[in-house]
């Protein structure tokens, strides 16, 4: 049987194979039956799901955004004392050389826009540091903080092993300040404290930017019950106006929503937010109803802070209250259905998803990127994996001998029909390395192969970038053509662009070779346009997609003619009049004359093309029929 484990002839356990039909009938069938039985009931709870999900996500996003803003603000303040501390600990700066210490501390304060005071205090409470005034000016001081900077920080109790420690928030005429301290330790003994203080004004502006409009208010409560940041200090949402300056005790601020915060009704349904420490509650005032999201965070004072936001929510909270009573059964069924669906979906879809992904790569002939499909316990999927992997291995072997671009074109155009031998107007390009025979005499077989492989890689890239097809490599030469298997009106222009791209690439290679003290390489390129037979040529199981005919022979003769016409040129490109006639906008052409080529009874008009001329505009290239 296919669903039990057996022992094969080699004594190895066979992999358990489970038919896909059995999985669908027993698993998905049972799931669908349960889902259909509950569909009418669960439809009543659809609105609850949407409302609950949106509010949950909103609560999480808002509080996390405020939390990130807060942590980003104070992280740079904390980092400042952490960065300066090693200079004291290793003796680079010390209490014995205050001037040098103040110079380095001034640099730290000037480079950090969030620090207002940076002060070092020894064990005798003598201190020195740098104070940044409201106008941004730096005031180095010794023992006495400049006017306006007093009571900006408070030293906490530290030991040699203490990390960055935040002290109590302090308030003076300039504003509110949070401060963080680290111990200064030399040879295992504490010699003092380094403290940085930061004004909450900049934090208030940053928090205010998170306010979503006039129907929402963002706040921070610290120092026990003092409101230190409030985004709507001019006019509260409830209409009250205040003239007080922060910090203010929560109940004395005049905001009725914050005043009633401790009496809020907590919404227990927001489990997702609660798991992250976010409390979502409903607050009723005399004239309105609000939804508040808040979270307690430690770390930036001697007491925890409360950050949060509230917004008008009469309609939302009413919907939540109406749907909460009927949510328990629906949520339970929904969770079960989701868990089953996820398990079954992953179980079945994972190999199919991998198959689709790898098949897409096969379709684009990116065979080097195809990863083998893993074996599966599902019988049908395991058979597909084995067959697919074997197919890819075969394609990779075939692609070694069939040009990838040709393979892709034939697949796109229909394979057998597109590859049938036919006559077509093509532009043929033939290349040859000047003097390669003499050059190869001084190379080993492996060096010759490596040299040609690098050279052909340049040629193939140039041809395929212009949509051409590489037919074959003949010695150190290459035969390529345009116009088949897919027809195109600009096949002549594409061939000329390719020749010039080859010339540009060869020039770079030659420059590099010259820097290494090697000889520069010269090339001849022939281009001719005419009718040729293109398609599968061969017999039985030995077929070759190629071009044959007089047009190919003429192209080879043109390349050979380069010995006479372009003798001494690094790259000589000769094109027939038939090719040039299809390039009316060609600027880089020079009439070379009429020549009698070997094997032809009539002479051929030949043009020499500038290999480094800018590509012409081919938008007005006409076919011979249109030109007439």
From TrEMBL:
InterPro entries: A/G_cyclase, Adenylyl/Guanylyl_Cyclase_3/4, HAMP_dom, Nucleotide_cyclase. It comes from the Bacteria. CDD domains: CHD, HAMP. The lineage of its organism: Bacteria, Pseudomonadati, Pseudomonadota, Alphaproteobacteria, Hyphomicrobiales. PROSITE patterns: GUANYLATE_CYCLASE_2, HAMP. Residues 346-400 form the HAMP domain. The keyword Oxidoreductase does not apply. Residues 427-559 form the Guanylate cyclase domain. The chain crosses the membrane at residues 20-44, 323-344. This is HAMP domain-containing protein. Keywords: Membrane, Transmembrane, Transmembrane helix. SUPFAM superfamilies: Nucleotide cyclase. It holds the Pfam family HAMP. It comes from Roseibium polysiphoniae. SMART domains: CYCc, HAMP.
């Amino acid at each position: 049987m296919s669903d039990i484990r057996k022992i094969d002839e080699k004594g190895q356990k066979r992999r358990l194979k489970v038919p896909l039909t059995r999985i669908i009938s027993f698993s998905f069938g049972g799931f669908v039956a349960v889902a259909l039985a509950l569909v009418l009931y669960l439809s009543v709870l659809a609105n609850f799901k949407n409302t609950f999900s949106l509010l949950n996500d909103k609560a999480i996003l808002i509080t996390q955004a405020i939390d990130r803003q807060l942590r980003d603000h104070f992280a740079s303040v904390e980092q400042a004392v952490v960065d300066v501390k090693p200079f004291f600990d290793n003796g680079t700066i010390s209490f014995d050389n205050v001037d040098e210490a103040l110079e380095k501390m001034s640099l730290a304060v000037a480079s950090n826009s969030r620090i207002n005071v940076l002060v070092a205090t020894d064990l005798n409470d003598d201190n020195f540091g740098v104070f940044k005034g409201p106008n941004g000016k730096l005031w180095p001081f010794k023992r006495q903080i400049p006017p306006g900077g007093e009571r900006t920080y408070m030293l906490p109790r530290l030991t040699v092993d203490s990390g960055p420690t935040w002290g109590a928030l302090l308030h003076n005429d300039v504003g509110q300040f949070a401060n963080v301290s680290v111990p200064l330790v030399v040879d295992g003994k504490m010699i003092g404290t380094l403290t940085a203080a930061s004004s909450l004004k900049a934090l208030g502006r940053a928090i205010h930017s998170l306010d979503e409009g006039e129907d929402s208010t963002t706040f921070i409560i610290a120092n026990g019950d003092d409101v230190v940041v409030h985004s709507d200090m001019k006019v509260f949402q409830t209409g009250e106006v205040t003239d007080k300056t922060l910090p203010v005790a929560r109940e004395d601020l005049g905001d009725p929503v914050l005043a009633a915060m401790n009496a809020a009704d907590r919404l227990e349904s927001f489990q997702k937010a609660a798991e992250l420490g976010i409390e979502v509650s409903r607050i009723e005032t005399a004239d309105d109803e609000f939804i508040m999201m808040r979270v307690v965070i430690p770390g930036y004072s001697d007491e925890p802070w409360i950050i949060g936001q509230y917004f008008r929510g009469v309609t939302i909270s009413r919907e939540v209250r109406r749907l909460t009573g009927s949510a328990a059964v629906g949520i339970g069924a929904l969770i079960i259905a989701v868990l089953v669906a996820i398990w079954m979906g992953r179980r079945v879809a994972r190999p199919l998803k991998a198959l689709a992904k790898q098949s897409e790569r096969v379709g684009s002939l990116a065979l080097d990127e195809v990863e083998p499909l893993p074996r599966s316990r599902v019988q049908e999927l395991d058979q597909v994996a084995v067959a697919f992997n074997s197919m890819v291995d075969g394609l990779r072997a075939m692609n070694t001998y069939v040009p990838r671009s040709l393979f892709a074109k034939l697949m796109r155009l229909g394979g057998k029909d597109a590859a049938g031998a036919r006559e077509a107007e093509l532009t043929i390009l033939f290349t040859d390395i000047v003097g390669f025979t003499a050059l190869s005499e001084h190379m080993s077989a492996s060096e010759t192969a490596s040299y040609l492989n690098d050279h052909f890689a340049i040629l193939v890239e140039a041809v395929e970038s212009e949509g051409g097809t590489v037919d074959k490599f003949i010695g150190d030469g290459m035969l390529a053509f345009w116009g088949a298997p897919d027809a195109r009106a600009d096949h002549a222009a594409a061939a000329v662009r390719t020749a010039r791209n080859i010339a540009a690439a060869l020039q770079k290679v030659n420059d590099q070779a010259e820097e290494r003290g090697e000889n520069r390489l010269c090339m001849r390129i022939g281009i001719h346009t005419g009718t040729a037979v293109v398609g599968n040529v061969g017999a039985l199981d030995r077929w070759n997609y190629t071009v044959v005919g007089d047009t190919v022979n003429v192209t080879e003769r043109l390349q050979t003619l380069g010995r006479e016409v372009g003798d001494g040129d690094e790259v000589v490109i000769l094109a027939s009049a038939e090719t040039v006639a299809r390039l009316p906008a060609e600027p880089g052409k020079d009439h070379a004359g009429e020549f009698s080529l070997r094997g032809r009874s009539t002479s051929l008009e030949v043009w020499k093309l500038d290999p480094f001329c800018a590509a012409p505009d081919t938008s007005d290239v006409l076919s011979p029929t249109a030109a007439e």
